Amino acid sequence: MGISIELEVNGASVSKEVEPRLLLAHLLREELGLTGTKIGCDTSQCGSCTILLDGQAVKSCTVLAVQADGSEITTIEGLANGEYHPVQQAFWDNHGLQCGFCTPGMIISCVDLLSTNPQPSEDEIRHGLEGNLCRCTGYHNIVRAVQDAAETMNG
Amino acid sequence: MYPSKFDYHRPSSVQEAVQILSDNPDAKVLAGGHSLIPVMKLRLAAPAALVDIGRIDALQGISRSNGSLRIGACVTYNEIANSADVQAAAPLLAEAAGQIGDRQVRYRGTIGGNLSHADPASDLPAAALALGATLHVTGTGGSRSVSASDFFVDLMMTALQPDEILTEVEIPATAAGTGSAYVKFEHPASGYALCGAAALVSRGDGGSCTGASLCFNGVSSTAVSASGVASGLVGSDLSDDAIVSAVSGLSIPDATGDMFASAGYRQELAKSIGIQALLTARDRA
Q: Which of B100, B229, B259, B261 sits at 20 to 30 Å (Cα–Cα) from B17?
C-alpha cells in the first residue's frame, strides 16, 4: 500500500508515493540521492543520520517517511548557500573531523544547537552533541569548531 | 534495517484512532516512534498496522489551571523540559524529561509514548509516580482516569486496554516549600537508567519534614514507590543523617538482575541515588 507524501527537501518540493515502512533516512539516500546523510548504527544512537525536520535535529533512521509528510527537511546538502554555512566553514578551519563519517550529522546537530543556544559553553556543546558519536574520538576539534562557528555567527 | 510491512493509519481525532485500534487487534499506536520504531526495525515487534496519533491536535499542548498541570500525550520531552509552566508547576518532570536520551531523541519522544511503553529503565515513570500524576485515557467505550500508581502493571505492561489511548497527563502542581530532584545513574552507552530516583521533600515552617516521596526507575520491572522511606522521613529534621538513616533500610521487592547490573548492585545503587535525590530535593525545598 503506497502512501502519497509531500515534503520540502532543501528548498525543493518533493512528491513521492512510499511504503509506510520506508525510513526517512532511506527516502533521502536511496530515493532522493542525498547520500550526505549517513546511516551508522541504525539504532538511534550514533546521530550520523541527523537531519533538520522543521528546523529540529532528528535521527532520520528513526522517523518514518510518512511521519515527515508536509515537513521541511534540511540535509547537509542544503546547508551551503553559495558559500559554506558558518558551521561547515568552522569544521573545515578547525579540522573538526577525522574520517568524516559522523560529520554531516555532527554539523546538522551543531546548527540546531546554535539556533537554540547561540553562545554555548564548552560544557553545553559537549552535552548538546551527546547524540552524535565520533568513533575517531575527534571531539576536541569538533568543540573548537562549534565555538568558532558561534563566534562567526554572532558577528 | 527495515520494519516488517504494516498498514498505516493517520486519524485526525482520538475517537477515530480508538475505533481503528478496536477494528485492528494487532495494531500499535505510533507517537514519536522512538521506542516503537527501533523495536520494529529489530523485528522484536511486527504490528500489522500503525495508528499514527502524531497529528491529533487534542493530544498537544501544556496548560495550567486550578493548581494542576495538564500535558497532552503527544507533547515531546523537549517541550516539557523547556516549558516555563512545567518548570514552575512540576520541576521534577522537567528535570527528568531533560535527562532522557539526547537532544535529537528529546525532539521526538513524547510523554504519552513514554508512559504507555512503560520501559522500567526510562525516566518519566518514577517522576509521574512521585508527582501523583493522573493519566486520562480514552477507548471506544469512553474515557476514564487512572492514577500513576495503578497504571504501571508489570514490565512494559500498563492498565491501558487494547483499544485505549493515553490522551493526557494531569499533575498536581508542586506546592511552595516542596523541593524535588531527579537523579539517575545511567548506562553509559544507552543512557537508560540503571537506577533513577525521583524525590519530593516538603518542609514545614519549623524546618521539619511534612511530606516526602521517593520513587525509582530501573530497579525492578516497573517504577516503584519507596513508601517506607517517605513515611520514615516525615517529622524528621531533614538533616543529612536523617535522610541517610531513612534510606538505610530500603529494599525494593524483586529487584532486576541482568547483564548490566546484578539485583544486589541495583539495591545498593537505589540507596545511593535515593540519598542524592532526597538531599538535592531538601536543599531546593
A: B100
Domain B178-284, architecture per CATH: 2-Layer Sandwich (3.30)
Same domain, A8 and A65: yes
Beta-strand ranges (E) seen in A19-130 are 50-53, 56-59, 72-74
A138-A140-A143-A144 Cα dihedral, nearest 10 degrees: -110
Give this prediction's pTM. 0.97
Domain, as residue range, for A108: 86-153
pLDDT in tens, B56-68: 999 999 999 989 9
Mutation for testing the B interface, residue in A62, A125, A130 having most B CBs under 10 Å: A62
What CA–CA distance (Å, rounded) separates A141 from A129?
13
Minimal CA separation from A128 to chain B, in Å = 6
Residues lower than pLDDT 70 in chain B: none
Domains in chain A: how many in total?
2
Which CATH class for the B60-172 domain? alpha beta
Tell me the chain B residues in contact with residue A24 when contact means C-beta distances shorter than 8 Å: none
**pLDDT at residue A1, as a whole number:** 60
